[in-house]
Hints:
Layout: E1 3-7, H1 11-23, E2 27-31, H2 37-43, E3 48-51, H3 60-70, E4 75-79, H4 84-92, E5 97-100, H5 105-118, E6 125-128, E7 131-134, E8 139-142, E9 145-146, H6 151-162, E10 168-169, H7 170-177, H8 187-200, E11 206-209, E12 213-216
Parallel strand pairs: 1-2, 1-3, 3-4, 4-5
Antiparallel strand pairs: 6-7, 7-8, 8-9, 10-12, 11-12
Amino acid sequence: MAHILIVEDDFAISELIKRNLQLTGHVCSCIAEGDKVVEAIEQKHYDLIILDVMLPGLSGFEIIREIKLMSETPVIFVTAKGTLEDKLNGLQLGAEDYIVKPFEVLELIARVGVVLKRCGKNDKTVKFGDVEVSLHQHLVMKAGKSIDLKPQEYRLLEVLIQNKNLALSREQLLNMAWDYDYAGETKTVDVHIRRLRQKLGLEDYIKTVSKLGYRLELK
């Protein structure tokens, strides 16, 4: 979906971010040293940069100043520096978002998706089997014919696509597709999953994860 540069000197965190973003279809590159970032950006185009603040060489705050002089590539800070002053500084320097460690992987993936969508960097169309989903137009086609999904059915499908290949609990799907203040029961998710499978023939794609929830399996 997007080529993302991860700038993080902690190998475990870098790998955690990389593996989960790759599962959702993104291509990731990693750099551990701050003074190598500018050169990397000059040599290759990235759709998004995930940037730590405390790095060997240049700091993340110094790096984003350089980035903004060179390109319009969106930046998300992911850092342990979590004071209000740090957050305001990062956002005022031009970051699209500021996430404080420790963080939830699903939240990071969701925020990455929001930034890519806002900046026009994400894929507009997703295809699997004979189903084609235009995320830009909110249009779903099956075998070339438009399928009428209810708003909540479409939102659930969109969340599954944005988190493809990740196992999501029913509670997580409720929070992500029905908003965090939704007070419904988890069986609501089962009902909507059943409707998506029936309307779009997604039995081979939307997998039930035993004792947890569901996963949309896409290559």
